[in-house]
Specification:
The chain has one domain (12-448): Cytochrome P450 (Cytochrome p450, Orthogonal Bundle), CATH 1.10.630.10. The protein has a 5-stranded mixed beta sheet with strand order 1-2-8-5-3. A 3-stranded antiparallel beta sheet has the order 4-12-9. Helix content is 46%, strand content 9%. It has 473 residues and is of the alpha+beta class. The structure holds protoporphyrin IX containing FE.
């Protein structure tokens, strides 16, 4: 594999321009129309609005939401209390609707499937995690992937953690999805990053109010490029290996452990057309990348800020990996990368507070507000406190990974074993998750905030997203 000298020559202006327009897994970034009256303040509200002109403020515990109202066509029910969110995510008559307008990529990929089709695909893909997947992954696979990326891209004393995070996550997510590196050059990594951003537009196009056709064309071109340049060679290698395995020439241990291999192994049952398999693999690439980078930067910032407040050192915190994992989970709770889940009622359903949602109505499930519910996380629910006690079976990461049938398939990979309060880790079988392990490695390599360059949030976004995070090593 050819590894050139590291350099950050990726067209970050292009990447930032696209990222500013929209994000994977996210609700609208449109500015709130201040001329419209605010709806009545309630914890769980029903607003009547035209879904295409929906815009919202998404911040800590904000129940006031402003909407542009141009045409009365449907009702939107908002659920934001923790227990009500848990309940809503389990209602099987509520169907995924966040990606309705991104069908160009998202049609019939796992997260948009429903009912039996969803169950069948999910049960096949979950087989990837059987046996000792996580132990092998965290001990044998992940350290090599991380080392390769850092050797290639981390040079010199300063870096932007967000850019570095993308370098790492592009590599990890493609490997998990089943896409091989071909020549390992910087140019190839740049192309993969650009494709990630271009493909990701499909997930958020529904919230874009301008002329969508140029974006659809960009996505079509990106799917073609992804297929020709990366998917086809990766598939050919896997088909050959699977044939060798079926002919008894190699053991199953020698097969790659990734989504593409699992899909190819089970394709007689799944019957996925080629073009759908390309999109499914691309979807995993998206689902794993932006979310993890978002989390990596937030968790690092929370760690630095906490240490500054407490007069302690990040190097000391990361010495205890269990402790660091609690920091990461607490940050995931406060800064979920998907602040809302959207559903449409297939049949009439009752929400936990008794509200009846007729078929056709939309339900916005507000994960971010639920994660700051004082009834569950205490009076300081909106503050970062990795030492907080949480009663019952509530996850330290709150609802950041969703729940019910669409609960995040990559949750343990990225967050590790989610211990409930009072549960002791099993020393030989505990997973820490990629974000904790990446932060640990970076801090051990000397990462600290750059005192001369303050980190910046994306101003145009009402969401809590870092634009840049300068660090020194
Ligand atoms: C911090 C990182 C991540 C967060 C916060 C996150 C969050 C979520 C959430 C909230 C959902 C549910 C969406 C819904 O109900 O509408 C979801 C689904 C999903 N996530 Fe993640 N995710 C993360 C990382 C990953 C990774 C690393 C992977 C893959 C390796 C992944 C794969 C998926 C898949 C495949 C689904 C769809 C599951 C289904 O529909 O059955 N995610 N994620």
């Amino acid at each position: 594999m050819l590894l050139r000298r590291p350099r950050f020559d990726l067209n970050m202006t292009l990447v930032r321009r696209i990222l500013k327009r929209r994000f994977f897994h996210g609700p609208s970034q449109q500015p709130v129309d201040a001329s419209q009256p605010l709806p009545t303040k309630r914890d769980q509200s029903v607003y009547t609005l035209h879904e295409d002109v929906y815009s919202s403020r998404s911040g800590p515990c904000k129940n006031n939401r402003a909407y542009q109202i141009t045409e009365i066509v449907m009702e939107v029910h908002r659920v934001s209390r923790y227990r009500e969110v848990e309940h809503a995510l389990r209602l099987t008559d509520l169907k995924q609707s966040l990606y309705d307008e991104g069908k160009i990529l998202m049609d019939k990929v796992l997260v948009t499937l429903h009912g039996d089709e969803h169950r069948q695909r999910r049960s096949v893909e979950s087989q990837l995690f059987r046996r000792n997947f996580f132990r092998v992954y965290e001990n044998d696979v992940f350290p090599g992937l991380l080392r390769d990326t850092l050797d290639q891209f981390l040079s010199g004393e300063s870096a932007d953690l967000k850019e570095l995070g993308y370098r790492i996550m592009v590599h990890l997510s493609l490997s998990f999805a089943g896409i091989d590196r071909i020549d390992g050059t910087i140019e190839e990594a740049d192309a993969q990053h650009r494709l990630l951003i271009q493909l990701g537009q499909a997930a958020t196009i529904g919230q874009y109010k301008g002329d969508r056709e140029p974006i659809f064309q960009e996505i079509r071109d990106a799917i073609d490029e992804f297929r020709e340049r990366f998917f086809l060679p990766s598939r050919a290698r896997r088909v050959a290996l699977i044939n060798d395995y079926r002919e008894g020439k190699i053991s199953d241990e020698a097969l790659p452990r990734d989504i593409l291999t699992i899909l190819l192994m089970h394709n007689d049952d799944l019957g996925m057309p080629d073009e759908l398999m390309v999109r499914e693999v691309a979807f995993f690439y998206l689902a794993a990348s932006h979310t993890s980078v978002h989390t990596l930067v937030h968790a690092t910032h929370e760690l630095f800020s906490w240490c500054q407040r407490q007069g302690s050192s990040p190097t000391d915190v990361v010495k205890d990996t269990h402790q660091l994992q609690r920091f990461v989970l607490e940050s995931m709770r406060l800064h979920p990368s998907s602040p809302e889940a959207w559903r449409r009622a297939e049949a009439s359903v009752s929400l936990a507070d008794g509200t009846v949602v007729p078929a056709g109505d939309k339900v916005v499930i507000d994960l971010q507000t639920a994660n700051r519910d004082p009834e569950v996380f205490g009076k300081d629910a909106s503050e970062f406190n990795p030492l907080r006690q949480i009663e019952g079976r509530t996850s330290r990461a709150g609802m950041s990974f969703g729940g019910g049938m669409h609960v995040c398939l990559g949750m343990n990979l990225v967050a590790g074993t989610l211990l409930r309060d009072g549960e002791a880790p099993k020393p030989d079988n505990h997973q820490f998750g990629t974000v904790t392990l990446i932060i640990k490695e970076l801090i051990e390599r000397g990462m600290r905030p750059n005192p001369d360059q303050a980190p910046q949030k994306i101003e145009a976004s009402e969401r809590d997203v870092w634009a840049s995070y300068p660090v020194l090593f």
